[in-house]
Specification:
single chain, alpha/beta, Rossmann fold, 6-stranded mixed sheet, 4-stranded antiparallel sheet, 9 helices, globular, binds adenosine-5'-diphosphate, binds magnesium ion
Length: about 240
């Protein structure tokens, strides 16, 4: 069986010369829930962008066994959905309903499947009652949930999240943990919040200076005080 994600010897340098990822090797199996932790500037967001093909560096990225390149990008995007750091980047239609139906319509899915996907996405994040609302009228927690619904409606096998807990109050963070806990997909979640990482993932990868410096079961990584402190992090 294919791995969900297989990254080999992958490096990325931004146009201004910043080395953001340095020889990354990483395999994630289908069904895993993985947190990417590390200090600001470690390379977490860049690694998520590389997985989705938003940037192209040196090395290879395989998504469900398919090598990421311009020819496969469309198929890869159907397999892997990204929740971007800022939900506003994913909400641009007059109503939430139009945002959530946008992806599956563009994938030319049969109408019944579009409807089922949209209904299920709204139910999963608990926003069915707000479908006709304008996205810019939503609260931070609702916007986060709405942005997740726009990805769920495309029914990807793999979903990446870039600091989804950012700007959420404790109640909304708890709700988000519950939503993530219900998702059957392979999840890759970048976060700086170790309690959140402990709640949503069973495997934790520590990134610092563009390299993977630790990778293992969430419990052993997150409670390794020396490791956490060496990389500017704290135990949950
Ligand atoms: N568009 C960009 N241009 C140049 N450098 C960037 C850009 N985006 C990020 N970087 C740099 O790349 C490194 C990794 O950043 P990033 O992936 O955003 O880290 P993280 O998400 O872990 O905070 C940092 O040194 C950051 O300053
Ligand atoms: Mg980031």
């Amino acid at each position: 069986m294919n791995q969900a994600i297989e990254i080999s010897n992958y490096s990325y340098v931004y146009p201004d010369g910043t080395m953001a990822l340095d020889s990354i090797n990483l395999t994630i199996q289908h069904g895993e829930r993985v947190s990417l932790i590390g200090p600001n500037g470690a390379g977490k967001s860049t690694l998520l962008l590389a997985m989705a093909g938003f940037i192209r560096g040196k090395g290879t990225v395989l998504i469900d066994g398919m090598e990421l390149c311009s020819r496969t990008l469309k198929q890869i995007r159907a397999k892997l959905g990204c929740c971007l750091e800022n939900p506003d980047d994913q909400l641009f239609m007059p109503t939430l309903f139009e945002d959530v139906i946008f992806g599956p319509l563009n994938m030319n899915l049969p109408p019944q499947q579009v409807k089922d996907n949209v209904d299920r996405a709204f139910e999963t994040v608990g926003l069915t009652a707000l479908a006709e609302k304008a996205p810019h009228h939503l609260s931070a927690g609702q916007k986060r949930a709405a942005a997740i619904a726009t990805v769920l409606s495309m029914a990807p096998q793999i979903i990446t999240f870039d600091e989804p807990d950012g700007s959420l109050d404790p109640r909304n963070r708890k709700r988000l943990e519950e939503v993530l806990g219900r998702l059957p997909q392979t999840l890759i979640i970048a976060t700086c919040n170790m309690r959140f990482a402990a709640a949503v993932s069973s495997r934790v990868i520590v990134v610092d200076h563009g390299r993977i410096v630790a990778d293992g079961p969430a419990k052993s990584i997150l409670y390794d005080k020396d490791l956490m402190e060496a990389h500017g992090l704290e135990i949950p």
